[in-house]
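Render this sequence as a predicted structure.
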Amino acid sequence: MFAQFLMSDFIITVCTISCNTSTCFGGGVYIGASNSTYVASFTMTGGTISNNTSGSYGGGVATYTGAITIDITGGTISGNSATGYGGGIYAANRTTVSVANCEVTGNTGTYGGGVYVYTSLTMTGCTVTGNTGTRGGGLYLYTGCPATVSDSSIANNTATAAGDDIYANASSSKPLSLTLSGTPSGTLTACGHDIDGWYSDASGSRWAEDNAVAVDTSETLTNTSALALKAAHGAAEVEFAIVTHPEDVTAEKGSTATFTVVATGTDLTYQWQYQTATGSKWYNCTTTTGE
């Protein structure tokens, strides 16, 4: 089933829209007004929009032209793809988006693998995961687009350029207005560690365990430049323990002195050092082995 609605109100309840293809906007659903002065709306309650393909924007759902409202409560938007923006949802200029208790998973696009929003977004109680894009694997916000995200999990998405989970564009004339309520949680599937907050995931400085720069989201973010975020964790603690310490050894000059240390942990490396009898500085040994 493919649905295209111009200048009207489109309401679906516990409906399945699946396996459709469009060469233009909206592989599954396209909503638009036939004139920029007109209005249209899309209301979804439950149901599934899945495995649709767009040769342009919005693999699952797309809007274009006119003042449009998207109101989604419950349901699943999954497995959709777009060659352009918004693998799951593409909301164009003058489209107001409200999404609650919805799962957006496994979608693919360029900007906004899961969701791309141009004008405004309110998201509550949603799960956005497993989506893939170039910027904003989970969510992409157009320059200055105000957004409020609460009680939602946006995590374990992938972006090849920046912002695995969220990419929010901004400028001095159109500053960011992004409210992220609550601390992200769950498990980061790539490493198995617990997610404990939002971290920078900018182009040229992607998040990594040794490059984890936390972003304070306790207040509304009002950046005047692009912000790329990933739900992740800080530097992981290295778990190791020395079981047996080296013991003193007395040996004649020119003979071999053997020291032993036993440690437990993962991917451990060893470096032995020595100090001369009259010196105070330690030097790395280059002829020793460690196991």
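Summary. DSSP finds no helices and 31 strands in the chain. Confidence is low (pLDDT under 50) at residues 1-7.
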